Amino acid sequence: MDLSEPEKTLLFALLIILFIVWLLQRQKLQKGRLPPGPPALPLLGNSFHVNLKSPHKSLIKLSEQYGPVFTIWIGTYPAVVLCGFETIKEALIERGHDFSSRYPLPVLHKVSGGYGVIASSGERWKNLRRFSLSTLRNFGMGRKSIEERIQEEAQFLVKTFGNKKESPFSPDFLMRCAASNIICSIVFGERFEYGDKDFLSLLEMIAENGHILSSPWVQLYNNFPKIMDLLPGPHKKIFQNISDLCAFLNKNIQSHKESLQKDFSRDYIDSFLIKMDEEKHNLDSEFNDRNLLMTTLNLFLAGTETSSTTLRWAIQILAKYPHIQEKIHQEIDEVIGSLRCPAIEDRAKMPYTDAVIHEVQRYIDLVPMNLPHMASNDIDFRGYLIPKGTLVIPVLSSVLKSTSQWKTPNSFNPNHFLDKNGCFKNSDSFMPFSAGKRKCLGESLARMEIFLFLTTLLQNFVFKPVIDCKDINISPVFSGILQIPHMYNFCAISR
Ligand code: HEM
Quick check: is 23 in a domain? Predict the structure, then answer.
């Protein structure tokens, strides 16, 4: 075929363009050498492979087929799933920097706009995390001063439970009040009465959000945010509740601003305001109003819902297994007696109680899929290439319920944390607070709260269910971001 000169030039240009397109395509494919996973449908991704009622269980099941590192598609975006102790340890601890960013899941991004310590990444996150940790420690997290605050709050709880006069009641809401009051003392410098109407309405909103965030609605929102934004449903309530909670916090922040003394910080908000003032000439400072509001909200929500839900689970499990409750009562009687409050230093002398608390946290597997992580840069991991910005899901449940790490992973068994002499023994696979650089910021506060609240309650009461203990269902009613227990009434019988 004879081609004219202009036709030859055109063909040559076309071939060059095709070559460049091929090269770019190849580069893209190489860059995204994502781990294999189940076949995904266009737009719907792997929606059909994941059970919305307990997504972590579907992920663990898929890992049996595709291995400990695999890819699923959430709607139109990929997520690299990490399962098992070795894989999660390698990613979050040994390759901590690579995996320490936070993925802006649609629901998280809509709520936070990328501000605050939980939702941020990079320099913003580093600054906010460093500041928050050191400020929480200054206000006594993990130390004597907060121990006294928790002991005092535990006595309020005992008094309120005692007022029920051994008649049946649900301890859930009161547990939430008590746990919330601890973080409120640190963040706002005040505690609230359990009957305070404003406080109760805040806690109701937090509880409601905890439920919706753990329901299938949020999975649907994260899969199809644009469509879900147009549809009515409980997911809309989350955003309404967050905006009401922010209004309360803004009012509180404003009154802190009006009474601030720059040389004396009363609480976390004061410390943040003082830091904002110190950095007021730095235009790039992360210490600004939006990060103050969001980080305060983060601490308030994370500090209220997690510890109180753990305590609710603990009471329920102990009511189901009265012989375990009885053994804790014995240990309390031997080590503490009835004349003084439990203190943190008692823990080392109470191996059985410590083992039960660890087992509660392992068994309930409170945050089964962790919070979403993100590849901080292109990551070469186990022969795959995970592109920067990819969602990473380290499935904590796959470690806490691993058949290779625990003798009876799916039953409640305090012996997981006891050696043959009855001494407490910890395990590297105990990671309910996650692991590595992004590990829970409130871990030492939460551990103090759970030990002191639980031992103080058990020093004073025997928890008896109103139904047969065999009928208490200790599997979650919802599993999403958190695993939520069923709700039961108990009688708190004075000891
Ligand atoms: C039993 C109680 C608790 C459990 C099981 C728990 C669990 C977790 C988990 C799994 C994460 C995600 C870690 C990651 O991304 O790898 C986290 C993060 C976080 N937790 Fe907790 N938590 C608890 C209590 C608390 C308390 C009392 C506070 C309040 C100070 C708190 C504040 C936070 C914050 C601010 C983060 C975000 C840290 C970051 O992104 O750097 N948590 N927690």
Answer: no
- In this structure, is residue 399 part of a structural domain? yes
**248-284, pLDDT tens digit by residue?**
999 999 999 999 998 899 999 999 999 999 999 999 9
Residue ranges in the chain modelled with pLDDT below 70: 1-2, 16-32, 141-144
Give the number of domains in the chain: 1
- Please work out whether the CB of residue 445 comes within 6 Å of at least one atom of ligand 1: yes
Beta carbon of 310 within 6 Å of any ligand 1 atom: yes
Confidence at residue 31, expressed as pLDDT on a 0 to 100 scale: 44
Find where tokens 């305001």 sit.
Answer: 273
C-beta of 432 in contact with ligand 1 (< 6 A): yes
Q: What CATH number does the domain containing 176 carry?
A: 1.10.630.10
Q: Which domain holds residue 147?
A: 32-494
Q: For a substitution probing ligand 1, which of 440, 441, 444, 448 has the most ligand atoms within 8 Å of its CB?
A: 440
In short, whether 440's Cβ falls inside 6 Å of ligand 1 is: yes
Is 37 contained in some domain?
Answer: yes
User: Residue 320: how many CA atoms within 13 Å on its side-chain side?
Assistant: 18
C-beta of 299 in contact with ligand 1 (< 6 A): yes
400 alpha carbon – ligand 1 mean position (Å): 16
